[in-house]
Predict the structure of Glutamate--cysteine ligase.
Amino acid sequence: MARDTTDFRPIEGMDELVDYLAKGNKPRSEWRIGTEHEKFPFYVDGHAPVPYGGDRGIRSILEGMQNKLGWDPILDEGRIIGLVEPTGQGAISLEPGGQFELSGAPLESIHQTCREGNAHLAQLREIAEPLGIRFLGLGGSPKWTLAETPKMPKSRYEIMTRYMPKVGTKGLDMMYRTCTIQVNLDFESEADMRRKMQVSLKLQPLATALFANSPFTEGRPNGLQSWRGDIWRDTDNQRSGLLDFCFSPQFGFADYVEWALDVPMYFVIRDGRYHDMTHITFRQFMDGAARNQVPDGLPTMGDWANHLSTLFPDVRLKRFLEMRGADGGPWRRICALPAFWVGLLYDAAALDAAEALTRDWSFEEVRAMRDAVPEKGIGAPFRSTTLREIAREVLALSRMGLKNRNKLNRDGFDETSFLSTLDEVVARGTTSAEEMLAAYHTRWGDSIEPVFLEYAY
């Protein structure tokens, strides 16, 4: 999330909140692909994390990128904490521990997504390498303790840092020591949103397994393939995880609104300042609970948009759907994640087939799968088989969808090649995390340091 919203229109009632989501409906011709990817900055000399300030800090990278790109700065109490393309076609932001994030432009094809990612990483290297900084493509910080991890000067993160230990045991790890790749996808109607939400919620644990890439913590194996996936099991279960009501055949925008209303807030912005609102839900805010606590304590549409951005289910509904299950990873994974989901959700035949495949998967079965994946990866059991076998079927459907889309690059190739890194996981029967663990115990000599060479951008 690059910039929090300031929309001061007052909220008159529930219908406006539902309508806010419904305005995300788009005709198929306007569907786009928005890819986000995070990475850990580190100093090449010594592999230490990069702080915000100083001549060789993250602020210097942001200022260098601003000069190179001409993008508008995002400021928080006078400090640069991100950049945004002036027409809204992309943004750069900081996660709490300095994770550097590109929120990509809404694009028509994975070919464009890959070109965007290549350009971003090349620009970043041009600015960062003279400072002795590179970036690590993993799902979890492999070396640094929480105390060693820098903290970025963003007001919303200060509020979250105080709040997280009250609602779970792993929220600070989520904030400061994880990275992800996400893709944001459109829907054309409430019924289309429902189908895509249900299919993608059921298949999100499979995405976590295929992209499992966080087997180290504080310099040694952590016993997991996706430490990041495990962290999300106890971050803040009021606002994250699987949503059982989404499995209902009648699920719609109003159901999501009803759930969101009863989740505690993080903040509101008034006069450029962030006010801690973690003591009330949005419903209580609507009922006047903050009337005497913050200036102009009545809810606005900007407050609602910001609140929706602080909810963390495995698939998040805003005016589009966010696929949130994957660990961060190397360059090829940045392209593979949107290809996986676009193939399944943007082609009618593939979506029909994925819906048929998952139709009788129960909430309890999907939750059990989600619980097993952080440790077992694609070897996690499901009914009488494993996720590796499910992955074969699902990747075949995604490939079919990408073929049907027939989005060709300048050389006449379609988007199916972007699935090759996932095909390799299934063919090997081992995830990226398992490959790293094998290297750690053999050619890396039980040292974590080679990861900063082999998985760096």
Observations:
- The two ends are 22 Å apart (CA to CA).
- The CA atoms of residues 41 and 135 lie 4 Å apart.
- The mean pLDDT is 97.
- The first strand starts at residue 33 and ends at 43.
